[in-house]
Design goal:
CATH superfamily: Spore Coat Polysaccharide Biosynthesis Protein SpsA, Chain A
Strand content: 15-25%
Largest sheet: 8 strands, mixed
Number of strands: 12
Helix content: 25-40%
Radius of gyration: 18 Å
Strand order of the largest sheet: 1-9-6-8-5-2-3-4
Structural class: alpha/beta
Number of helices: 10
CATH topology: Spore Coat Polysaccharide Biosynthesis Protein SpsA, Chain A
Order of helices and strands: EHHEHEHEHEHEEHEHHEEHEE
Shape: globular
């Protein structure tokens, strides 16, 4: 059975906010006597603010020090690919909007060297899935050589995977805080959290979007495992082994992908930690609230069904939110 942990902000996020030292120095201290694990980052982007994205990728490279950064770029505007090609990152462009989940999955597959398996997604969540250079089809499936890797964990070019949204709402210091416990081997999956009591929100969402997000998280905590403060934050890190195991079960192509992935990882027994972060809302988000709410509700319904088919219990271990430790409870 997996376990859940809420990491106090003073341990990771506080440390990164307080220091100006580079992450490479931090890693050299944290991993003294241990091999440093390699990190690959995916930045899913749909028609992003190119200047902001360029600044963000450079900051991630400097602060988090990954082995690779991959920008999964959907429906780029003229000149965007050329501008991004000058970054310390690889750009993989698709001509149309594939959906956040498809883009992240394609990026993770590239980073671990996967060539498998068509993955069929349940719906488009309002996004348009078309053929891109990753083999994504209109139905959201990904065409590969048909091998099943769900029972094995092949050797991966990178040890740890992460993704961060292209709008730079998660500052590089908080991105480093999210990847750190996975790099250290403390968790299989780390979830950045805007709604954790120790998180710092520098710029809030609109009242309607905030209440919608609160209601969604409240509902998820009562219907599925894991029990978290925040399911949809665009900042997550995981071991490559988790991706190899979970990838064949995922079905959500769009904004419901985060919940689908978390429920699957919990059902497979992986250890999950929730990391409080600093977060800034971006008012010009490409996320349409009404359509997204419907898509997330459908995704929650489907994720609950898949959780049951994977024989995962309803509701995970409760968390003592004051102490940040597990506490037994009855639901």
């Amino acid at each position: 059975m997996h376990s859940l942990h809420y990491v106090p902000g003073s341990e990771f996020s506080g440390k990164f906010r307080a220091t100006a030292a580079g992450t490479k120095r931090f890693l050299s201290l944290a991993y003294r006597g241990k091999p440093v694990r390699s990190l690959g980052i995916v930045v899913p982007a749909y028609r992003p603010d190119v200047d902001r994205l360029r600044s963000y990728v450079r900051a991630l490279d400097e602060r988090v020090a990954p082995s690779q950064i991959l920008i999964e770029l959907d429906a780029p505007r003229p000149g965007a690919v050329e501008a991004l090609n000058r970054l310390p990152a690889t750009v993989a462009a698709a001509p149309n909007r594939r959906g956040k989940g498809v883009a992240i999955a394609a990026g993770f597959d590239r980073l671990v060297g996967a060539t498998t398996a068509r993955r069929r997604f349940d719906s488009t969540d309002g996004d348009t899935n078309t053929h891109g250079d990753n083999g994504a089809r209109r139905d959201g499936s990904v065409e590969g050589d048909g091998r099943d890797t769900s029972e094995t964990t092949p050797e991966s070019p990178v040890d740890v995977l992460a993704f961060f949204d292209a709008d730079a709402s998660t500052p590089p210091a908080s991105a480093a805080a999210v990847v750190a416990p996975v790099l250290r081997g403390e968790y299989d999956l780390a979830v950045g959290s805007r709604r954790h009591p120790e998180a710092e929100v520098g710029r809030h969402q609109t009242f309607g979007r905030r209440r919608l997000g609160d209601a969604f998280a409240w509902t998820c905590r009562r219907l599925v495992e894991p029990s978290l403060f925040d399911y949809q934050c665009g900042a997550k890190a995981l071991s490559a082994a988790v991706w190899w195991r979970a990838r064949e079960y995922l079905r959500e192509p769009g904004f419901g992908w985060d919940l689908d992935f978390l429920v699957t990882a919990a059902a497979l027994g992986y250890e999950i930690g929730e990391i409080p972060i600093t977060w800034y809302d971006r008012p010009r988000s490409t996320v349409p609230p009404a359509r997204t709410a419907v898509a997330l509700a459908r995704g929650l319904y489907r994720a609950r069904g898949r959780m049951r088919r994977l024989d995962a219990p309803i509701g995970g271990p409760a968390i003592d939110r004051k102490r940040g430790t597990e506490a037994a409870s009855e639901r």
